Amino acid sequence: MVGALGVAVVGFGWMGRVHTQAYARVPHHFPQLSVRPELVTVVEEVPGRAEEAAERFGFAATARDWREVAADPRVQAVSITAPNFLHREIGVAMAEAGKHIWIEKPVGLTAGDARAVADAVAKAGVQGAVGFNYRNAPAVAAARELIAAGEIGTVTHVRIRLFSDYAAHPESALTWRYERERGGSGVLGDLASHGVDLARHLLGDIASLTADTAVFVPERARPTGATAGHTRASGGDLGPVENEDYVNCLLRFASGARGVLEACRVSVGEQNNYGFEIHGTKGAVFWDFRRMGELGVSKGDAYQDQSVSTLFVGPGHGAFAAFQPGAANAMGYDDLKVVEAYNFLRSIAEGTPHGATLDDAVHSATALDAMSRSAETGAWVNL
What we know:
The structure is a single chain. The protein has 2 domains: 3-133, Rossmann fold (3-Layer(aba) Sandwich); 134-331 and 357-382, Dihydrodipicolinate Reductase, domain 2 (2-Layer Sandwich). Helices cover 32% and strands 25% of the residues. The chain is built from 10 helices and 17 strands. α2 (49-57) links the parallel β2 and β3.
């Protein structure tokens, strides 16, 4: 018996659309799921945007105020895809109202915000999922299995990179993303949060770190109207960019491994260049998001001059079989969010967490706060 589950989406920019499409696709890829999401309400304060979303995707109702969703008994689960400064207020309120929540990273502006949402979820006894989608790539799942099985020996060091050009244009609008009060951190919360989650997911807890940050585009034009995504603006009044464009961080793991995490949002010539290189005493694994279905693997007993082979992930890796029948058939970004939606809905159906949780968000946010402190003091910070 498949039961209906009323869902709402709060905030309908690009990520709100991605969540909505993921809900629609989950039954197609995971027919064994015992709950079926039904789109009840879309919330968006920009005039006309919610109505357009309802017409396009089939929401039963629209709202301008998210509090209407908190009070609506038809809604059991909520996607929170609003700007960062709203995460804590909406997340806590939804949990207290008994709603399960799927919230985008970084879950607020600080570790305190993430912890407040996590505590509210735990107290209410609801499920809470977080948008760390890159861990859902089947190649990442394959890498995790290889590492756990000791196929590359004891991990010695890792390099994680997240380079993008989405903010490289000097006419990129001065949206909430660049303000401390509404965006919190810059590339730390946006990209480095994913890097921290990948590091912990693959290698375990981070013990300490030291970081350096920089702002490379110090001023941007204020937008004159509603924005979505990475809007450009020219001719408007210039305002200061208040958070970092770039971070470079040295990591020490509890296991003794060492790492480098580097992220930048203004890297000209780099489009979603995300990935990792993990080295061990017997081998290594390499992954590039832009070649999502491939994993470079070096293992054996040669040590010196040991070759690297390419593993094309297939039905035996992660959730690949839910999307494609054979190895080397391509998956995409939106597929990773479908996996995320499935884990969220499965958590609700079974009452047991699956996938990235609010605890993972707290760990990531704690590391991000430590990076900010280290960048200010130049010191190593223990986590």
